[in-house]
Write the structure tokens for this entry.
Amino acid sequence: MNFKSKYLVAFLAAYLLASTGFSHAGVIVLEGNYQGKNLYVQNPFRSSGVGFCAYEVTVNGQVTTDEVNSSAFEIDFKNLGLKVGDKVTVKIEHQDDCTPKVLNPEVLKPKSTFNVVSINVDPKTSTLKWTVKDESGKLPFIIEQFRWNKWIKVGEVDGTGTPEEHSYEFKVIPNSGKNSFRVKQIDYTGQPRLSNKVDFTSDIPAVTWSPEKVKDKIFFSDATMYEIYDEYGNIVKRGYGKDVDASDLKKGVYYLNWDNSMGQFLKK
């Protein structure tokens, strides 16, 4: 192929590319829940210096009326009829030679705002029940029980994430004697939001165990939650049952948490 033919092929390829409207334009997608606050976007000029980077914004598929032809703009959710907790998908379409910057994307992340209306334990069914209001995003409720001088996670229930009152329940495993439970949520800030604790006394008998010098197994008088730590404080076993396989433990001293008690044993 001579030079003239090569030039003609290159020209036709460029023409076809342009006529099909092919573009490398990008899109920024943000998903979350409406928390009552707006998004702010920094919108630079294109690299050519003519025009701004972002050219269209949609919220849940609806084109917004926000004025995007400026160096900074606000995505205003107030006119979209959204309620706090509603699911939101924001798409910011922009040119391929630049990228706008969302300054506060965290406002779409679920935030823990619940307030407890009631919380109690039904001792007959060992069921923790709680009612809350003012949720503003879908976050799990973490159920914790106070055992062995610490709060431990015993379960999780998905929250509804809207401000109306919602009721939840979770089947717990009580220990003998006094029991304490609470629920909490942890949002993007990393700070837990806690309910008040609820106490009740169980009439189930205390669980005992044997032997103190262990060869292969530890036996409990009834099924119980348990934890085993080595002499350095590392947890080596955790579970629920009437016995524990200890055959794989190395010889030495171990610390045992069970029922509502703590002790230690020697692995032979």
Notes: Confidence is low (pLDDT under 50) at residues 3-24. The chain has three domains: 23-108, 115-202, 209-267. The longest strand covers residues 217-229.
